[in-house]
Predict the structure.
Amino acid sequence: MNQQQFEQLLDRVAEQLTNDMNTEPRAEWLSVQSTKALSYEQHVRERLHYAVIAMGDEGVGHEVDLNPSGQTFPDVPCGPFGVEVKFTNDDKWVSIANSVRETKRDESVKVVYLMFGKMGGEPETRWMKYEDCVVHVRTSHEPRFQVDLSGEKESLFSVMGIPYDEFRKLDIMDKMPYIRKYARKIHPDGRLWWLEDTSSGEEHSTDIDLIPYPALDKATKNRYRAEATLLCPALVADGKGGNGRIKTTAFKDAAMYFMTYRGVLLYNARDINSAGSVGNKIEGVVGLQRLMEKAASYLDSALFEEYWGEKVAPEDRLAWWLEKADAYTTSWDHKPSELMFLAYQKERNNRG
């Protein structure tokens, strides 16, 4: 199978997936736990699998593994071609993508494509070559690509003046000058939004134009607090022993989230959470649970993978958070799982 044939195959698969998304129950696209309910990524994997088989001899060497072990980039290798998968419940074609480091790259894949499922608005699946739809780079823990399949924006690599295949092979310290140059181009006033790497290996903050946290209205403060608490469960740690270091790291992670994803300068990360003393009060973490439930659904999946270090299905995120939070809270009157998301836990238990 040559590249043109593979792209024709992607056309057929995208059309099939669009039809599936408009005819199958919504829940089919969100769960990875049930053998009946498949995630979008697994839908993509299966559609590609059967499309390759249907090609007969021309599909030999491009077989899709339906049960891969471990995480690699791209998600679905197909011989020399590979498909990275993104999905959103929103009505938009934008998503956070993988790290610029690409440490888990499958080097047998020579050409990478992105298959994107958009469930919001009119459900649809589109695909593009990965290098063509990467339009931006952003960071919290580290630089990550941002993709846009609207087809309205210029490729990041065109803007940076280096082919993707050349850029991806560089060491991270050699990639950063390109990223810094790009940042200065889109922020000519010098107000950059991430941490720069220097040739000495040191990191420092650049001058950035942010909204001070105290200037936010109460509703926005609570929404952002809920998002940060969900992404950083160690914020509820009581601070004793080793938990002190864990909580300090969580405060830094939360501050970085506020800055890079919400454009908010958090002077003192402790302002957003003091879980040990107020955890059982409405103004504490427990009082954020309704907003956290919503955030578990609308925050980009790549954020959870970045902060949690693993992929967790939307319906499993609150359970994942409770398990971590329970382990961190040794001085609460009750564990978070005894106070929070009770209806969610009851429904989950009823499902078995």
User: Anything to note?
Assistant: Residues 31-37, 189-208, 275-282 have pLDDT under 50 and may be disordered. The longest strand covers residues 81-88. The longest helix spans residues 3-23.
